[in-house]
Amino acid sequence: MNLRRQDGLTLIGFFIVLTMVLFFAYAGMRVIPMYLEYHALGNALTKLEKDPAAKRMAPHKIKQSIQMSLWASYADNNIKDEHIRISKKSNGVNVRVKYEVRKPFLANIDIVGRFDRTAVLR
């Protein structure tokens, strides 16, 4: 009698793998937009750093420039004016954006992202 050994994935194994894939896909759907927003903030601050007239702008104009760049990138959901701090230093104008994003994940579990980015306008 010739017995063949069966190889492959059982139905229970398939459901375990499917559950893990769905879990990480759901986590990615919650985390990736946070980092895309942070990336858009980095682009807005880099654009501001490259602008030679930015150092002489009024603080509310700097905030407005950042918000407009974020709005154009569809990334203006979590970064508000109160998260943007502007201070004058000896080497230029220091622009710091510090904010926190909290997204619901499962039941009473949240995903929290804390972001802090600084640019010096010279």
Describe the 3D structure.
The chain is an alpha+beta fold and 122 residues long. It has one domain. Helices cover 44% and strands 28% of the residues. It has two helices and three strands. The chain has a three-stranded antiparallel β-sheet, covered by helices on one side.
Q: Average pLDDT, to the nearest integer? A: 92
> Largest beta sheet, briefly?
3 strands, antiparallel
The secondary-structure element order is: HHEEE
The tally of structural domains comes to 1
Helix content: 40-55%
Number of alpha- plus pi-helical segments: 2
| Oligomeric state of the chains in view | single chain
Topology:
Elements: H1 11-50, H2 59-72, E1 84-89, E2 92-106, E3 109-121
Helix pairs in contact: 1-2
What are the salient characteristics of this protein?
single chain, 122 residues, alpha+beta, 3-stranded antiparallel β-sheet, 2 helices
What is the structure about, briefly put?
This protein is of the alpha+beta class. 44% of the residues lie in helices and 28% in strands. The protein has helices spanning 11-50, 59-72, and strands at 84-89, 92-106, 109-121.
